[in-house]
Amino acid sequence: MRRYFLVFVLQLLIAACGQQSDSSAPEASSNMAPAPMAPEARGMAKMSADIEQSGAEQSLTELSEPTKDGHSNALKKYIALRHHLQIETKSEQMQASFDAALKHCEALSCELLSANYNKETPYNPPSASMSARVPPRNVEIFLTGLAKNGEVLQHGRDSEDKTNQVVDTDARIKNLTELRDRLRLMLTDKSAKFKDIIEVERELSNTQSQLDAMLSMRKILSQETDLVAVNINFSAAQGIT
């Protein structure tokens, strides 16, 4: 009986040891250090990281570049564009061509600066000239109309960068406006002495004169840069003698 009891106890101990071994196996596997990465795998991982990093830098570069819709921090350019044309027509068609150019200019909302027509004399053929400022969107239409009323013998183009003048004028207008407003505010001080008031009024008058001159200059610059100047000379075709 005692022998059977010892055998039973021994079996229980063996079963318990087996369960403890099975439960510790996953623990050991989870605590195992990861296998070292092969050199090829390490190279691929580094290349992937480099690609991701360069992609991030590229996205930052794209954000810092001006966009296609024109939004950027770059300084706006103010360019004065001019066209110079020599149009030749027959003497008998000169008046009609000149009048057609004037009407076309008016229809395209041009700003006519000058228009002259010289009739034919026994000594000189007829001639004409006109100068206008044309909205940029209508320049091509206007030039096409001129070519239909005569032969374009010469067509010159030139441009002038007015950016520095515009920026300088805008800055001076801003400074003079602020000065004028401060001087006007000083005149509201009821505790100021009469002598000081006279001095402020004198300075205010001088500042206002300078401001008016700058505003006039800015208007001229706007006309030169917002519109395109077109100067045209009409001449009569000369027959072969």
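Next protein, fold it too.
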Amino acid sequence: MLKSHTIFSLALCSSLLLACSGGGGGGEEPARQPVSNPPAPAPAPVNSGPELTITAPPDGALSAAEEIIIEGTAADPDGVARVTVNGLDATSDNQFTTWSATVSLTPGPNEITISATDALGTQNNNAARLTVERGYLYDNASDAVMEPERQRAFLIDERSGSLLAIDAAERLRYEFSGPNSGSGPDWFDPIQLQLDRTQDRLLVFDRGRGAIVAVDPDSGERRILASADIGAGPDLSDAERVAFHPDGLVAYALSPASLTEVDLVTGQRQQHALSGSTVDTVRRCLLDAANQRILVTGSEHIYAIDLASKRVRRLH
């Protein structure tokens, strides 16, 4: 009896084990499907306040006035409610799409900070910055030319070696053609500047590069007209000064012993030896086209160079 009970119990356990193992399906559990989590929501955009752009004056400008007008634009998806310049409210008639403010200047550099607030009250306290210096407009000018028709002047800044422009009406000076403005070859050592009214351009003698360069008076773009790489003939790096013809087609590069005629269309150069009086040094020179001569200011005397004979005569 005990033996039969034991056999029955073992059979029952075997049946239960088979049932638990899937009824003879090999004893393997079904593959589990991976659980996919929903994507995390994108973070809400950060509202940093309005974006500002300063349109005038350029950063680093110099002014001779006691105050200056700062102008710019502002934009924000929620609208712009306020713009301040050094804490003073700017004015606008188009919801600050454009704005302006007048600030006082003290002698020397003036740091100017512009802040803005959008319609929801979000502030951008450091939206834009610039520096304006108050000083003398022609300070550190190695050469300068006037353009009265446009009420402006151009000069070479001997500190930076860049071309600067002066707005006579605004009494404002700013970089016009240099590292931060204009395009074209870099300046090496520009020493002389001439306004070419016929071709509507500026002509610059860059002694460090040994080149005559044309500059667009609106964009500041630079283009070499004559150099060691453009046109054939003697190098211009030995010249001390250049006299430009009013037609903008010819220039004369001068050294104490020679005169080099430069074709500003082709860049071709032809050198002539000078005779007559010896020029001690060339400080300044000017083409006297009516009398076909070049007037030269030396360290002690004034000379005239006849263009036909290339002979030098001391005038004073």
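About the second fold: Residues 1-25 have pLDDT under 50 and may be disordered.
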